Amino acid sequence: MKIKKLELHGFKSFVDPTVIDFDLPLIGIVGPNGCGKSNVVDALRWVMGEMSAKHLRGQSMEDVIFNGSDSRPPLGMASVSLTLSCDDGIIPVDYANFSEITVTRRLYRSGESEYLINNVACRLRDIYDLFLGTGVGTKAYSMIEQGRIDFAINSKPVDRRLLIEEAAGVSKFKNRREGALRLVESTKANLLRLNDIIAEIKRQINSLDRQARKAERYKVLREELKTIEVHLSALTFLEQSQELNDLKNLLKSWDEKETETQARLSSSEVEQGSLQIKMTESEGQLTELQEKIYEVTNQIQLLETQQTYKKQETENLKKQNDRYLHEIQLGKEKRGQIASELDDYNKQKTDLSNEVNGVHTVLEEAQTRWNIIHEQSIQETEKIESGKNELSESQSRMATSESQKTSHERQRIDMKGRLARCRAEWGEIEKQYQGSQGLCGEVKEELMSLTAERSQVLEYVAHHKKDIESKKLDLESRAEILKQNQETLVLKRSQLRSLMDLQRHYEGFQDGVQAVMRQTKLEGKRDRIFGVVADFIETQPQYEQALSAVLGEKLQYVVVKSHQEGVEAISYLKEQCSGRSTFIPLEVREGKTAEKLSREKGYMGPLLDHVNIKEEYKKIGNYLLGDVVLVDELVNALRLWQANGHKNILVTLEGDVVDPYGVVSGGRRNGKSLDILKTKRKISDLKDIVMEMEQEASLQEDTLSQLEGKISSMSLDLEKQVRMSHEQEMQAAALEKDLFHHQEVFNNFQERKEALEKEIAELSSEEENIENSIVRTQQSKEELLTLRERLQTEIELLQKNHDNLKEELQKASERLMEARIAAVSADEKVSAIDKNVERLERSNQDAQSMIDRHMAEITEANQKISTLKQECEECVRSWEGLRQDSDSLKIHYGTLKEEYEALATQKSEKEIEIRTIRRENDLAKDHTGNLRVTMTRLEGDMGHLENQIQERYHTNLREVAAHYAGKPIEIESPEEKVKELREKLEKMGDVNLGAIPEYEELIKRCEFLQEQYRDLESSIESLQKAIVKINRLTRERFEKTFHLVNEKFKVLFPKLFEGGKGELYLTDENDLLNSGVDILVQPPGKKLSHMALLSGGEKALAAVAFIFSIFLVKPSPFCVLDEVDAPLDDVNVKRFHQLIQEMTDRSQFIIITHNKQTMEIANALYGVTMQEPGVSKIVSVRMHEATAAA
Question: Of 94, 187, 324, 562, most Cβ neighbours within 10 A?
Fold first, then answer.
């Protein structure tokens, strides 16, 4: 399983999708520190399942997601895919059919993770299992960095053992053994729990055995009681059936009378219905016409509004065009000014160019003149020195002659003259030197003061820039928050409008309620029909279920002013067939009052105390909820009912209800009543939220406005300080030029002063020598006098020439300095003009861009104006057509209204006829009603008797009654017998009839659990055998691998160290499952020692020997080495390279390095760079191709 390629996107510094191909056996990854090389290793670790953020050099796992840079925003996801080639045959069995395996891991900033193998979602455990036992993994020896080298050296022997285990392939066995041990422990715990359950079940069996025998006795007595009671009830039922048949015959005659009157009534009602249908059709047509008129009117208003808007939009566009034309004119004027300024600057530059050329010409001439004079001065100095040498020779000859004495005396006089001249010149130079030194000091002080001031300004500018950037970030953050809040506010407003629309149209209410409230709105009767009960009643959320349970459909009762409005509304519903509704008048009679039970447990007071009702509707509230008491839970409600009888309705917070007669209702309500209260509460909550969010948005807008103003003010101040800094920079440059000039003059004076001092010292020394020579050369005075005079004359002439040349050289130096200063000044003027020209050209381009943009916008606006004009004309034509349609519809509406009124008159006449027939029908109904009441009572008695037998004995009395017809009961005093049996049953007390099936069920369950217990014991035995087998395999493989690695280590260590010896040993040879692995080494010329006593380089080399010994025994498909060669010197690096090259035929190596020798052995190099700050890029080089190209 060698690495074929690695794909990264958004992982640490690899923000862009990046693919690294690892198709060669030895790959090098190079790059400067901090460029992201180690991020490649982190990506490999991460995709193979690393879960420790610390091992990935982060604080949390979210740190692996690209967090943004100066030029890039943060990403929301990190993704790494590792493609492995399976050509080497090392592949898990589950993936044997694949030539490649791609492992993908993604992490989202929300914290969600995805793991995929070959694009199929999997678990992290599956990725662990994929690499387990292959030598590859986050904790295996395939990933070796400097920290891993330290791990091999400094870790505990038990931790070092893990590397041997991975090579032995027992890590998978070890995981299975740990899983088996956990399973054994959990199975043992299950056994204990199962044993407790079995003991409890046996205890229950003993108890149920007694209850089952009692239940059998109970069933015998109850069966005898059932036989007698069913027989008695059947005889009674047969007598009541005969009486019921007689009443049915009498009812039949009155039914015929009722049918005859009902037929006449139905005929009249059909005719009335026909008239009603016609009226309904007419009314529908009227309504349809009204809607059409309303629709046409709305369309007319909409067209008028659109026309007004389009005119306003046209005016706005024209104003915008005028503003843009004005700005364009200003832009053109600005471009003209810029062009004029550019011409001026170009002329200045042309003039300056000539000046610069002239200045440079003068500078070259001055330099040439200075060079010539300097050369002549050197020549004259050489001549003077030659004359002096010659004079010195003559003086040496005067040692034996008297005439030389005279020559020395003259020389002494000459020396004194020269000394006087030199001293006089030194005095003058000293004065000029002191003055020049003072000027330099003043200029330096001024320059230092200006530099300090400019540093303060620059510091202020930098600080202000940071403040402005901080405030801009704050502004952007606040603007984003405001935008999000505004979006949320729009959403909340939309939700509020939707809920208010539902409430306004009574969505979810009964059809009858919707029809009444819709008609009330159309006819404007809100002063007589006020709404539904839910409109006027409110409560807190915790009481909504209780209130909904008590009121239920009563929440949809329509509140009216009096009964008259309710009767009219009911008539309307009947006429329109629009459903049913209940109406409650304001002056409804008050109901019962809830009893005070403040001392009772669970009592929370009358429900009315927890409900808010408007004052004018208090009576309705008292009627609906006056006798309702709120209790915390159903148990307490039942206890209160038993203690206080049937005086109040009891309701719990969860909506369970106990009525005064003890009937209990409860469960989970899914009805509309609770939705009505919730919708009303949601509307109230949303209103508060919207109001609060609007206030908060207003405050945020004010804060943004203030922040923008502050940023603008700070920006102006910053521009002022920047301009000041530029001015100070120019002043500093001028002072530096002055300082350079004064320093040059000062240096010249200092050099001349030092030369004179030296010359004075030399002359003084010569004068002393001459005085001494005069005594010795008195005899040669006459002979050498002529020679001295001649030499004196020559030297004086040469000295004069030399002094003249010095003066000319000084003047040439001054002219040269002036020419240099003039050249620098002219160059700076040209540079300043170039900068101004560049600035003006940018301004000219900006002005032209503004003109082009505004011209395009004016063209677009003119097109919009033309379109709006056409749309306005179209609106006028549509308006005229709609106005004609409206007039026509109104005429048609008047005609239909007359037809509707005629039908209403016919309907009234028919209603009078129907009332007469209905009175006759009502008389017949009274008789039939009375008979039916009697029959109903009789049927009720029979039904009660049936239900009683059904409930007690689960027997259908109607079916068994015929069996007992004509069969009197054979027992004397059956009623007494029934009483006796009942007393026996009551004396038995509570009987658990379910004990018999429960007893049988428990016997079966106990047998099943005992079987489970035996199975668990068997599974524990199997697991322990498996653990023993795993331990045996682990010992064998670990021991074999340890000895093989030790043999390789013994060979590799002296090979890398060119001598010495090293070996591995077990800390506890008797415990191969847990023994640690330690290392003993002996470098050449040293005593046997532990690894911890070695030097840094020796440790690294010994650790490499240890890890590569493992590789030689169990080569990992690939190996990643992260700067492992860093602590090695050149000699050891070569040995390290040789070792790697020997192993490339078995494993793939990826080396991250700074070592040039290591780079040279790589088949390919990948360079990691950061051309863009914070963003890593990959550049690849194929070494054999590069070598061939070279």
Answer: 324
Provide the 3-class DSSP secondary structure of residue 77.
Answer: strand
Helix (H, G, I), strand (E, B) or coil at 1163: coil
pTM: 0.37
C-alpha span between 649 and 24 (Å, rounded): 87
CATH number corresponding to 1-142+1124-1190: 3.40.50.300
Q: CB neighbours (10 Å) of residue 1068?
A: 11
Distance (Å) of CA 1055 to CA 93, 316, 752, 1136: 38, 91, 72, 10
Would you state the pLDDT for residue 828? Answer: 73
Cα–Cα distance, 146 to 1107 (Å, whole number) = 13
Q: Please give the structure tokens belonging to residue 977.
A: 């017998």
* Sequence ranges of the domains in the chain: 1-142+1124-1190
Going by their DSSP bridges, the two strands 26-30 and 1148-1152 should be labelled as: parallel
CA angle 931-934-935, nearest 5°? 85
* Cα gap 1088→1062, rounded to integer Å: 9
**Burial (CB count within 10 angstroms: exposed 0-12, middle 13-18, buried 19+), residue 1119:** buried
pLDDT of residue 89: 58
Over residues 222-277, the pLDDT tens digits come to 777 777 777 777 777 777 787 778 777 777 777 777 777 777 777 777 777 777 77
CA distance 1104 to 73: 42
Q: How many CA atoms lie within 13 A of 653 on its CB side?
A: 11
The DSSP symbol for 779 reads S
SS3 114: strand
| Residues 551, 539 contacting (CB under 8 angstroms) | no
The 3-class secondary structure across 933-981, one letter per residue, is HHHHHHHHHHHHHHHHHHHHHCCCHHHHHHHHCCCCCCCCCHHHHHHHH
Render pLDDT for 576-617 as a digit per residue (tens, 0 to 9): 777 888 888 887 766 566 566 656 778 888 888 888 888 888
Give mean pLDDT, residues 849-872. Answer: 84
